[in-house]
Automatic annotation (TrEMBL):
The keyword S-adenosyl-L-methionine does not apply. Its EC number is 4.2.1.46. InterPro entries: dTDP_Gluc_deHydtase, NAD(P)-bd_dom, NAD(P)-bd_dom_sf. It holds the Pfam family GDP_Man_Dehyd. This is dTDP-glucose 4,6-dehydratase. Keywords: Lyase, NAD. Its cofactor is NAD(+). Residues 4-317 form the NAD(P)-binding domain. Belongs to the NAD(P)-dependent epimerase/dehydratase family. dTDP-glucose dehydratase subfamily. GO terms for biological process: nucleotide-sugar metabolic process. GO terms for molecular function: dTDP-glucose 4,6-dehydratase activity.
Length: 348
């Protein structure tokens, strides 16, 4: 089986590539990634060494192609060579979508359409689109509501609006052209290779550097956290057993729903650090209050059970950042990262 993985040099995509290679000895993968600030070939060092060439030759099981999913000519050439397309490529950080919305539309909306068109034109290739729970909007704190796959889309951030648009395009290619698509909408992920600017990876790395942890507002927002392993196993299961045209929610085991402040306190406890390491900063504009998904569909229909509790997920993630200091220090030491960090937190 030949896969085109887009965004495979990012956090979740690179974890998925590692998993596929370990699980399927015959697999062939083309990884198409633009290498934005979030794309990092250090996440895939193993494959460059094994295949002998990160840029790939004719005889490859893994081939890396640097390029843009919005480049129709390139995308057509690559899609023609594969059986399955899995689309991870995206601008993925809400904070950055406030600073520069246009690139979110170009990659997340136009880029997804270019991929869909290529999958359609080249023999209706199987297409899986990786999306987020954030497209469903925000739930009030005092509500017990949980979204289902049938809930209306109500995105509120520029990131979630662009992801919502991409999901609609995926569904439209199914209904209009019969393209065999599936979509997964997932909770926030944690785990290896998570770029150290997102809430928890920033918190862990700041704590390891002896710095404080920025928490937006009063930290009352409620999020669902899933270990990345549970996410990529679910995607593989959807590709194997999912019904085309369907959307599946992927979320953590039911019991753990702390707010952001409580989550950071759990983290501090795991790392044996005092609570005065928390620093409250000015809230993000339009910050979604709460996400909550009812994930019974994937459990009942595909037999998926997430493996890790929140405590286990946090512990495993802390351990990874403690043992891979070089990986994240290289990123945090880069001018791009410092520039972003100053812009984001200096005046808060
Ligand atoms: N991280 C999460 O918690 C989470 C949760 C739910 C859904 N998702 C979705 O999962 C997917 C992957 O998220 P992530 O956290 O790994 O993101 P990430 O930001 O770590 O990685 C994104 C990757 O896409 C690449 N990319 C960006 N623009 C591109 C373009 N135009 N062409 C080709 N490649 C491009 C980047 O270089 C990077 O390697 C995204 O679609 C995101 O919306 C993420």
């Amino acid at each position: 089986m030949k896969y085109l993985i887009t965004g495979g040099a990012g956090f979740i995509g690179s974890n998925f590539i590692h998993y596929l290679f370990d699980k399927y000895p015959e697999i062939e993968i083309i990884n198409l990634d633009k290498l934005t600030y979030a794309g990092n070939l250090d996440n895939l060092k193993k494959f460059s060494a094994e295949s002998g060439s990160a840029s790939g030759g004719e005889n490859y099981r893994y081939k890396f192609v640097k390029g843009d999913i919005a480049d129709a000519e390139l995308v057509n050439k690559l899609v023609r060579q594969v059986d399955v397309v899995v689309n991870f490529a995206a601008e993925s950080h809400v904070d950055r979508s406030i600073l520069d919305p246009a690139v979110f539309i170009k990659t997340n909306v136009l880029g997804t359409q270019v991929l869909l068109e290529a999958a359609h034109k080249n023999g209706k290739k199987r297409f899986h689109h990786v999306s987020t729970d954030e497209v469903y909007g925000s739930i009030s704190l005092d509500s017990d509501e949980k979204w289902t796959e049938e809930s209306p889309y109500q995105p509120r951030s520029l990131y979630s609006a662009s992801k919502a648009a991409s999901d609609h395009l995926v569904r439209a290619y199914f209904h209009t052209f019969g393209l065999p698509v599936t979509i997964s909408n997932c909770a926030n992920n944690l785990g290896p290779y998570m770029y150290p600017e997102k809430f928890i990876s920033l918190a862990i790395t700041n704590l390891l550097e002896g710095k404080k942890v920025p928490v937006y507002g009063e930290g009352k927002q409620v999020r669902e956290w899933l270990h990345v392993e549970d996410h990529y196993v679910a995607i593989d299961l959807i590709l194997e057993k999912g019904k085309v045209g369907e959307t599946y929610f992927v979320g953590p085991p039911d019991e753990d729903r702390p707010n952001n402040l409580e989550t950071i306190k759990k983290l501090l406890k795991i790392m044996n650090l005092p609570e005065d390491r928390i620093e409250f900063v000015k809230d993000r504009p339009g910050h979604d209050v709460k996400y909550a998904m009812n994930t019974s569909k994937i459990r009942k229909e595909l037999g998926f059970t997430p493996k890790y509790s929140l405590d286990e997920t946090l512990k495993k993630t802390v351990e990874w950042y403690q043992t891979n200091i070089e990986w994240w220090q290289k990123i945090k030491g880069s001018p791009e990262y410092k520039n972003y960090y100053d812009q984001q937190y200096a005046k808060r």
